[in-house]
Amino acid sequence: MRLSHTGKPDNYYYFVIEDCRTETGRRTSRTIEKLGCASAIREKYKVDDAEAWCRNYVNSLNARALKEKSENQREIVIKLREDHLKDKKSNIFNAGYLILEKLYYEFGMNRICEELQDKHPHITGYDLTEVLKVMLFGRILFPSSKLALVNDFQHRFFEKYEIELQHIYRAMDVLNVSLVQDRLYQYTANVCERDVNHLYYDCTNFYSEKELEDCDRDDMSDDWKKNHTLRKYGKSKENRPNPIVQMGLFMDGNGIPLGFCINPGNINEQTTIVPLEKELIKNFKTTDITVCTDAGLSGDANRSFNNVGEDDLLVKMGFRGQRHFICTQSIKKLKLHLKEWSVEKTGWSYFSLDTAGKRVTKTNFDLSKLSDPACYAEHYHTIFFKERTTAEGMDARLIVTFSIKYYEFLRSLRERKIKRAAKMIENRTFDRESDHSPKSLIEKTYSTEDGEIAVNASASLNTQKIEEDARFDGFYAVTTNIFADKMPAEQIAAISARRWEIEECFRIMKTDLESRPFYHSKDQRITAHFLVCFMALVLLRGVEQKIASLNENKLKYPDGKYSIEQIIQALKDIRVIEVDNGNGYQPDYNNSELISDLLECCGLTELTHEVVMKDTMKKFLKKISAGPKKLKQPKTT
User: Fold this and answer.
1) Sequence ranges of the domains in the chain
2) Contact 247, 204 (CB under 8 A)
């Protein structure tokens, strides 16, 4: 602050001013306090030299401001006029994204953008780092179309972004999936716990808003069609008639996505796992890994690729690690002798506690005993298991479990399914096809063995199939090439049980990040759209790990305190109100344990105060933008 004056020299009018900047960055000054004319000051304060008194007063204001700044005791006085019109823009901004921005830099995403720009020197006119930030934070906090993000949502962030729609599309054209996911692993491995000893893989699909495959466009050139190959008709998870694309996703043992691939919607999902796995394990060649999949992805080729034991020559020489698999096995698809062995009542084991509280294994249990109500109640939470080796194609270990809770769950599903089937028979809707289905265009003709046209059709419940399916209620099987001398059955089951986490990753993408439907047609932009969703999911998992690090018990995902939905909502709720023309910001949120944890784990405790000064916020923004050093080459082991 400094002293200024105006008027005639014999009776100056004094006031206190300070330097500031406008929203456009232009330097200017503003009046802090009006002190009055020289004659009034001499009379009021009984002094001979009015200017000297004013200078001493300004010095005292500067000294007090410096002390308050060092002790975080500054205050802002807001003056509003009832007859003044409101500014056109909003002065309420989201500040929760700053937590994501801190992880954005910690995970080296800005360095990835720099590397992409180095590979594409023609990129000019926009900052790829800024564009990617807006796309990521917008996808998490305000999932919407690209146009809505540019026109509305980007202006809700505390920092002033001015991204144009063309910038987003130009950025999507240069995002490279292979480079991004490789570098993302290399950077995050330095700041996060990445468990690459256990990898989980699954597939899902996403539907397009457009109703035609790109190959149906007869008016387009062959070059155009080469860049439009992904949207194909296939079996949609939502049973929609729209073209779809298929996503394969690898997740590490701590629930953090590791890599993904986008394939045409009509491709066999079993062919997608090996190419992506080869791409990813380049970053940890000598690490022993176990790949866990569901039954649909456990084909012979995939099992063979992950059947690399300690007797392998390259493993002995230290050039690569061992590879194993744990796959869900459909009992109904086993050979007859294995199927009958799986559901036999005898030969089951389970764990129990002895009188000293030590866990012991009980063997040779007969499941027929569960028909007794007392035994049924005693073992309601027990998981029974048995195992054997198989030698069909390759040596493997088959582990089968039985649980009363799982038995009741499957039985209740079947009962509801039977009720729906009976209702369809009653209403004669069992042979009806949707108008959207190609089957609706097929005319069905029924005839007798003599060739006569059958006019009437009847339907009934297939009791034989119902009874056969009921035989397998409560049973669950996995197959693996990790044998009993290397890992006990309960550890195998525990690893397999975490497959639900990758299903949650898909649910977060589809529901919370609203990645469907997608509106793009070009292969590069479709892939870039899902790359942004993938990176957003990595950020959210990083927030989970940050919160877990605060807990005394070191609770890790998936045993954390908060769900992803709660975290996203808390990030949306953390807002600030601009006051005093941008010289301060007043936090605006209902305090909660989750918000306190978020602000603490990311070092943003300033937002727990009544007001945050502009210079304090600038220091924080500068601090969080200090990310890791740029990698020159991928790290391989």
Assistant:
1) 2-70, 92-177+544-624, 330-430+457-498
2) yes
> Identity (one letter) of the amino acid at 216?
D
Alpha-carbon distance of 180 to 173, in angstroms, equals 13
Given a contact cutoff of 8 angstroms between Cβ atoms, the answer to whether 600 and 80 are in contact is: no
The pair of three-digit structure tokens given for residue 356, joined into one six-digit string = 């000293």
SS3 content of the chain, % helix, strand, coil (to 5): 45, 20, 35
Q: Which amino acid is at 435?
A: D
Under a CB-based contact definition with an 8 Å cutoff, are residues 398 and 389 in contact?
A: yes
| Cβ–Cβ < 8 Å for 135, 100 | no
* Distance (Å) of CA 277 to CA 221, 249, 274, 463, 536: 34, 10, 5, 44, 21
625: amino acid identity, one letter: S
Please say whether the beta carbons of 218 and 198 come within 8 A. no
For residue 239, give the amino acid letter: N
Strand partners, 576: 93, 587
Whole-number Å distance between alpha carbons of 137 and 157: 9
337-344 long-range CB contacts below 8 Å, 24 or more apart?
338/390, 338/398, 341/388, 342/398, 342/400, 342/475, 342/477, 343/471, 343/472, 343/475
Q: Report pLDDT digits (tens) over 570-603.
A: 999 999 998 877 788 888 998 888 998 898 888 8
Strand (E) or helix (H) holding 365? strand 359-365
* Structure tokens given for 551: 């807990």
Residue 143 and residue 134 in contact, taking contact as beta carbons nearer than 8 Å: no
DSSP 346: S
* 351-391 pLDDT, tens digit each: 888 777 788 888 999 999 999 999 999 999 999 999 999 87
Identify whether the C-beta of residue 575 lies closer than 8 Å to the C-beta of residue 588.
yes
* Type of residue found at 319: F
Residues in a beta bridge with 575? 94, 588
Tell me if residue 579 falls in helix, strand or coil.
Answer: strand
